[in-house]
Amino acid sequence: MKFMLMMMTDEKAETALSNDAIDNIVAQHLAVSADLRAAGKLVHANRLSFSDAATTIRMHDGKPVVLDGPFAESKEVLGGFYLIDVASKEEAIEWAKRLPLREVGAIEVRPARTGAQWRGTPRGGPQFMVLFVANPAQPLSRAAVFDAIDAHYELSLDLAAQGKFVSSRALEPNVAATTVRYRGGKHVVLDGPFAETKEFVAGYFVIACDSKTEALEWARDLMAGSNACEIRPVWARPQP
């Protein structure tokens, strides 16, 4: 079973950390990543650039409108993720507890659905994450769901043919989420997503493009069936 561990961070608090504190967090990620790889459970992991580098595309009057900033304004935003393949949600939560957590921030554990992982080497430049945004109050019809799946499949083939496809995954609805927080020196496990909001992340693509402008062009096509999509650069430095 595949699960996405979404690391939520308070970016203002993160920028205030000392270099030693940051080095300690990186070391913990490196250690957990090494253990996940050794156990054959790590599928993919990325750290994202801060949300001020995000761009959101929304549909307005039937046309895509490009807006600066993330899809939702919140104190805690998505800072990165691990996609892991484990036997159960309970095991996924135990791995989540091993990731560095502070009194601010959280880790959301959500079951993943269908998707793909490109096994070749992308030929493109910087990587970008395209986050699909959904609203449970506006569910898609069965026909619309299959149309979106077909569109994503065809675009995945085009991306792969150009060496720009890295990975993709659909996620279970946010009601299937569990959130791990760190309070009073202990891990606290809570049912539900990290934040109550009308919209939630429903899936993602990681693509390798020559520029953010190109990533936005792909995102306009990839957002089939979504309320909106957020495009955020993947951290350029080596990943843990």
Compact description:
The chain is of the alpha+beta class and 240 residues long. The protein is built from five helices and twelve strands.
Percent of residues in helices comes to: 25-40%
Class derived from helix and strand content: alpha+beta
- The first-to-last residue Cα distance is 22 Å
- Overall 3D geometry? globular
Number of helices: 5
Work out the strand percent.
Answer: 35-45%
pLDDT < 50 runs, ≥5 residues: none
Output the radius of gyration.
17 Å
| Average pLDDT over all residues | 89
What fold name goes in the CATH topology slot?
Alpha-Beta Plaits
Please tally the β strands and state the result.
Answer: 12
Largest sheet: 12 strands, antiparallel
| Count of domain modules | 1
Walk me through this protein's architecture.
It is a single chain. The mean pLDDT is 89. Helix content is 28%, strand content 37%. Strands 1, 2, 3, 4, 5, 6, 7, 8, 9, 10, 11 and 12 form a twelve-stranded antiparallel sheet that branches. The protein has one domain (2-233): Dimeric alpha+beta barrel (Alpha-Beta Plaits, 2-Layer Sandwich). The two termini are 22 Å apart. The chain has helices spanning 11-15, 19-38, 89-98, 142-161, 212-222, and strands spanning 2-9, 42-47, 55-60, 63-68, 77-85, 106-117, 127-134, 165-171, 178-183, 186-191, 200-208, 228-233.
